[in-house]
Design goal:
Blueprint (H helix, E strand, L loop, with lengths): L3 E6 L8 H16 L4 E6 L10 H7 L8 H6 L1 H12 L2 E7 L7 H10 L6 E2 L6 E2 L5 E8 L16 H10 L4 E8 L2 H4 L5 H18 L1
Parallel strand pairs: 1-2, 1-3, 3-6, 6-7
Antiparallel strand pairs: 4-5
Helix pairs in contact: 1-8
Bound molecules: flavin mononucleotide (FMN).
Length: 210
């Protein structure tokens, strides 16, 4: 069966974005490794993602068979984003660090896809993720450097948060590549190509190792 890759981007910076450059590189490598594969794009900066409302919560916690047509409509976006996740075998996420955490559009998307009895369940008393058998690669770009052992490591709420959320949903096969130190580009201390090259090499190595 040909595989499907879901390519999720959240940087508002378009062509100038580091994380988008890296997801593009990943997609190109993936396509070479999966010539029959399908790539689905989900650009969170052009998806209308409303914040979770009382109506949304009420609908999500109403048993499916008892929902009103209006409640089904309230959950329609969430249903389609969740269907996209189930339909894909692999995910790649481009994530810029914004204020030590993830961009707000990515949080809005997470709030849509975390749904009781759809992507997680407490039916047995302990949480069980329902999105199983998936693989995720998370490509993080940040101005500073937050690698383990650095003075800023405890400020990194991007990688631990995303690992927690995906793990909660059942996605435990997660690879994270961090492109830290992008601020040096703004100060003209390094050119874009030189900055990107080691990260591009790491992404290419993922496919060579596979
Ligand atoms: C609104 C905003 C907030 C940011 N907050 C941080 C931050 O907390 N820590 C950091 O190291 N870099 C921060 N940066 C720098 C970005 O993480 C960096 O420019 C990165 O390359 C963004 O990814 P992108 O190029 O894919 O958009 C911030 C940038 C913006 C625009």
């Amino acid at each position: 069966m040909p595989l499907t890759l879901l390519d999720i981007n959240s940087s508002p910076l378009g062509e100038a974005s580091i994380s988008r450059h890296l997801t593009h590189e990943f997609v190109e490598g993936w396509k070479l490794a999966n010539p029959d594969g399908k790539v689905v794009q989900r650009d969170l900066t052009s998806t209308v993602l409303p914040p979770v409302s009382a109506a949304w919560i009420g609908a999500a916690y109403t048993p499916e068979a008892s929902r009103t047509p209006e409640q089904n409509e309230t959950l329609a976006l969430s249903d389609s984003l969740i269907a996209e996740l189930f339909a894909a075998d692999e995910y790649v996420l481009g994530v810029p660090m914004h204020n030590f955490s993830i961009p707000s559009v990515l949080k809005l998307w997470i709030d849509e896809i975390c749904r009781v009895n759809k992507t997680f369940s407490y039916a047995t008393g302990t949480p069980v993720g329902l999105l199983t058998g998936k693989k995720a690669t998370i490509l993080i770009a940040s101005g500073g450097i937050y690698d383990k052992g650095t003075v800023m490591a405890s400020y990194n709420f991007v990688e631990p948060y995303l690992r927690t959320v995906f793990g909660f949903l059942g996605v435990t096969d997660v690879t994270v590549l961090s492109a830290g130190g992008a601020a040096a580009l703004n100060y003209g201390k390094i050119d874009r190509q030189t900055f990107l090259q080691p990260h591009v090499d790491s992404i290419r190595a993922q496919f060579q190792a596979a």
